[in-house]
Amino acid sequence: MRRRDLIAGTLAVAAATPTVAAASNSELPTDAAPLAIAGVALPVIAGGRLRNYIFVSLRLHLGRGQSMERLRTKEAYFRDALVRASYQTPFLVADDWNRIDEAALSASLMRSAGRIAGRGAVSRVEVFNQVPRHRTLVRAD
Asked: Which of 5, 30, 41, 44 has CB 3.0 to 4.6 Å from 52, enough for a Cys bridge?
């Protein structure tokens, strides 16, 4: 009997949590609530070969008058644009295969954001975490 109550209580809390989070995000000004995109796997390609993957977490800071809900529906498009750009022109740091060039990634995603969500929808891109799949040394092939 006690176990059943615990499970029911856990499900009730889990069901209520997204509603509370959505309500709190809509009350915040757009400058204070960036859209977080976590766990995007980007390749490190050097010399025409795949050397590593970097798992990147980033925040898209919303422009004036933009709603979190509108941009959240476009998250998959932002992910797709980022992965496509990383294969076309890798965000490579020449002497390190364990991280990516944050400035190049930000510039690329800012260009894509104009096409995806409209001009001025994203004011800034912030890379806040990079985790390499493997710790790799740069080798001359």
From this structure: 44
